[in-house]
Amino acid sequence: MAPIAADQPTPGSGLEPCFDVGSQSITLNHGIVIVCLLLVFYALALWDRWMTLKLYERQRLQGELCLETIRAIN
What is the SS3 string spanning the chain? Predict the structure, then answer.
């Protein structure tokens, strides 16, 4: 009699191989994790862009204030 592989059910038991069912849920879990990571990196990119625009706006406003101060002194 040939040995039974560890990942196969006993012949005649009517059970399906457990690893076939598990691999579908593992694939689904990996997909969910990948989508979550993509969303996190997208949110970080948006936040970085927002911070860059705010910094540029602040520098622009400070530059205008400096020019107004110089004009007032002269």
Answer: CCCCCCCCCCCCCCCCCHHHHHHHHHHHHHHHHHHHHHHHHHHHHHHHHHHHHHHHHHHHHHHHHHHHHHHHHC
31-52 pLDDT, tens digit per residue, is 899 999 999 999 999 999 999 9
Mean per-residue pLDDT, 17-34: 72
Residue with tokens 């993509």: 38
14 sits in the region (left: phi over 0; alpha: psi -120 to 50; else beta) called left
